[in-house]
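Let us work through a complete example step by step.
Step 1: write down the sequence.
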Amino acid sequence: MSLKVTAVRSVPAATDLIAVAVSSDSANAKQLSARGLPVALLAAQGFTGAADQISLVADAKGRAIVVIGVGPADSVDANRFRRVGAQAARAASRVKRLSIDVLGASADLSLDGRSAAAHALAEGVVLGSYRFTEYQSDPKPSVLLTVTIAGGGAVRIASAITEGAAIGQAQNYARDLVNRPGGDLIPAELANEARRIAKREGLAIKVLGLAQIERLGLGGLLGVNRGSTHEPRFVEITYAPARAKGTLALVGKGITFDSGGLSIKTGEGMMSMKMDMGGAAAVLGFFSVVTLIKPGCRVVGYIPMTDNMSDGDAMRPGDVLTIRNGRTVEVLNTDAEGRLVLADALSLACEAKPDAIVDLATLTGAVEVALGGRIAAVMANNDDWRNAVEDAAAIAGERIWPLPMPTDYRSFLDSDVADLRNISRSRGGGTITAGLFLQEFVANDIPWAHLDIAGTAWSESDDAETTKGGTGYGVRLLLELARSFTPTVRRR
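Step 2: predict the structure and record it as C-alpha cells.
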C-alpha cells in the first residue's frame, strides 16, 4: 500500500489520530490548557515536553491525540521535524488516518522555514511508516493510508510536502534493496532494478556483463567475482537535463553479499552482509527520484556489482590484480574487496572527466569503531568539495564527520610485489588507509569525496525515522548535493 501525504489548511474532521508537538518551554498548565490538552493527565504521565517524550491522550473534544515533546523551542530544526513526523507515523501504525498539527504551532517560522519543516515532516512520516515484510508469511505492516499535514495551505509548503514524501519513498526503496537477501538480490537482479528505474524515469543506462567487463579490463571487479557462481555486472546510469551545469559522478559499492572470500568472516560477521551493497542502494535510490528533484547538473552513476564468495577458483591472498587504470594491487586480505571494485569504478568515472566525484561504500568496520552507527566518515582530495558534501549532509540531516588523509600513511600500503597492497601494514587507521587506497584511482585534478557508510547503512534497532535493518543512508545527502551542485570546485 502506498502512503498518501497531503497538505491541508486545518485538521480535517475525519481523522483517527492527531499528532501535536509541545516544547519544554510551553509544557505548562496555561499553554497546554489553551490548546485543549489534558493538563492533569499529561502531568500524571510525567510529560514535560522533553525531546522524544510521547504521550497518548484525548483532547477537550474527545479526539485521540499523540503529544510529542520536542525539547527547547529554540533547538527545534528540520531534523527535529523529521523525527516528529516519524514518531507520529509510528504512533499511528494501527490506524488509517493521521493528521499532524505541528506547522500551525510554528507561526514564528518564515515561509522558507515552514517549507523546510513541512518537507522534513513528510520525509519523516514516510520513513517512520516503513516496514519490510516481503518474506513474512503473516506480515503486520503499518495500516496507515493517509496523512494530512495541517497548516500547509501555501503552494510552496504543499510542494515541499510532496517532494519530502517522494524523497522518503526513495530512501525506503534503498532500504528494500539492502534488506533483500543476498541469495535473491544477486548482481543480475540488482542490475535489473537499475534497468527498471531507468525505464520508469527516462534515464540512459548501460549494463555491462562479464564479457564487456573483461574487455574493459576491470581487474578489481573480476578478481572479487572469481569465487562466485554469479556473473558480475557493471551499471552506468545517467540523468542528463537540458543545458546541464556540469557533471557530478556518483560511485556506489555493490557487493550483494560479502562472505569475506577466502579470508572468510565469522558466522556472526556475515549475518548482516547482505547490506554490503548499501552504497549502490543509495545511488539507485537517488536515481529513483532524480527527475522529480530536477537538479541542474548532469549526474552519472557508476555501480560495480558482484558478491564476494569462496568457490574453487576464488581470489587468493597474494594474488595481484590489474585495475582499469593500470595500477596493480597485491591482495593480502580478500575481505578488503570493496576497495578493489571501487578502484575500477573510480577509474572509469575519471576517464569521463566529471566536475566532481563522490563515492559511497560500506567499506571498513573501523569507521563504526571510530564514529558509531549514526555518523559516516568523509574524506576528500579537495577541501572545498568536502565542505560542499558536509553542507549537503547537514541540510539533508545525514550526519558525517571528516577524517584526514595524511600523506605519510600512504607508505602503509606499499607492496613488495605490486604498486600497492589492499590492506595496510599498520593495525590502526583502517578507514583512513582505505580512503588513501581509493585516492590512488582518482585523477589529481578532479575533486573527489569518499563516504564510508559501513556504520550508517545498517541499524540494529528502530529509532524514529531509522528502522532496524537497512537504513537507506545517503539518498537524501546525494539529492541535496546534486540540487546545490555547481561545477566551480577544482583541485588547486
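Step 3: interpret the result. The two ends are 51 Å apart (CA to CA).
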